[in-house]
TrEMBL record:
It holds the Pfam family GHMP_kinases_C. The keyword Amino-acid biosynthesis applies. It comes from Morella rubra. One of its GO terms (biological process) is amino acid biosynthetic process. GO terms for molecular function: ATP binding; kinase activity. This is Homoserine kinase. It comes from the Eukaryota. Residues 142-214 form the GHMP kinase C-terminal domain. The lineage of its organism: Eukaryota, Viridiplantae, Streptophyta, Embryophyta, Tracheophyta. Keywords: Amino-acid biosynthesis, ATP-binding, Kinase, Nucleotide-binding, Transferase. The keyword Transmembrane helix does not apply. Residues 9-78 form the GHMP kinase N-terminal domain. InterPro entries: GHMP_kinase_C_dom, GHMP_kinase_C_sf, GHMP_kinase_N_dom, GHMP_knse_ATP-bd_CS, Ribosomal_Su5_D2-typ_SF, Ribsml_uS5_D2-typ_fold_subgr.
């Protein structure tokens, strides 16, 4: 409201969540994005995407920390690289329009509190792992820009710092990743802090097959019930639908 220059009006918002809480899917960022876009539309759509991201950041700061990892792509759509925070610098990474990309999201009935999952991360990182992960980050960006889903999947699956610490805390996760790749996914990893697992494919029907295998692995190896969803890359981001 301050960014819009509105001082004398109060608003009450009703939000219907479409994401499970604490799932590693960025549900708090989705809420922040929806609220920012809705309020902006009410007052004439004055703010641009980067200004809306700044507004969403203020909301995220109170819930999960001052980071735009989720709220930037939620508002802007597609892939977004956060280059800097002071000042905020965002770079769109345009996945080729002629290619399709689907995410297979499998969420088990298991709580993975962000605080606990962050505490599992190492305080210091060895040079070899630092160099490796930086290389994979570069490969991921290049793969997105080239529309190389095979390369994207490889980079997504190659983390040597975060995933090795968090995967053992989610029952069955290692088996789920293996099942996803064996079923045809190009790559698989933990979504956010977990417990959701995310895999990438280029066809929806393949995504359904991969999702079924992941759900089965969660049950067989982790004794956890899980639900799957297959979602196409959203290139637009949060918008007014009615």
């Amino acid at each position: 409201m301050k960014m819009l220059g509105v001082r004398s009006v109060g608003l009450s918002l009703s939000l219907e969540k479409g994401l499970p809480l604490g799932s590693g899917l960025g549900s708090s960022a989705a809420s922040a994005a929806a609220a920012a876009v809705a309020v902006n539309e009410i007052f004439g759509g004055i703010l641009g995407p980067e200004e809306l991201v700044l507004a969403g950041l203020k909301s995220e700061e109170k819930v999960s920390g001052y980071h735009a990892d989720n709220v930037a792509p939620a508002i802007m759509g597609g892939f977004v690289l956060i280059r800097n925070y002071e000042p905020l610098e965002l770079m769109r990474l345009n996945f080729p329009i002629e290619k399709d990309l689907f995410f297979v999201l499998v969420s088990p009935e298991f709580e993975a509190p962000t605080k606990k999952m962050r505490a599992a991360l190492p305080a210091e990182i060895g040079m070899a792992h630092h160099v490796w992960n930086c290389s994979q980050a570069g490969a991921l960006v290049a793969s997105v820009l080239q529309g190389d889903i095979v390369g994207l999947g490889k980079a997504l699956s190659a983390d040597k710092i975060v995933e090795p610490r968090r995967a053992p805390l989610i029952p069955g996760m290692e088996a789920v990743k293996k099942a996803a790749i064996e079923a045809g996914a190009f790559g698989c990893t933990i979504s956010g802090a977990g417990p959701t697992a995310v895999a990438v494919v280029d066809r929806e029907e393949m995504g359904q097959k991969v999702g079924d295998s992941m759900v089965e692995a969660f049950w067989k190896e982790g004794n956890l019930r899980a639900v799957k969803a297959v979602k196409r890359l959203d290139r637009v981001g949060a918008r007014l639908v009615s």
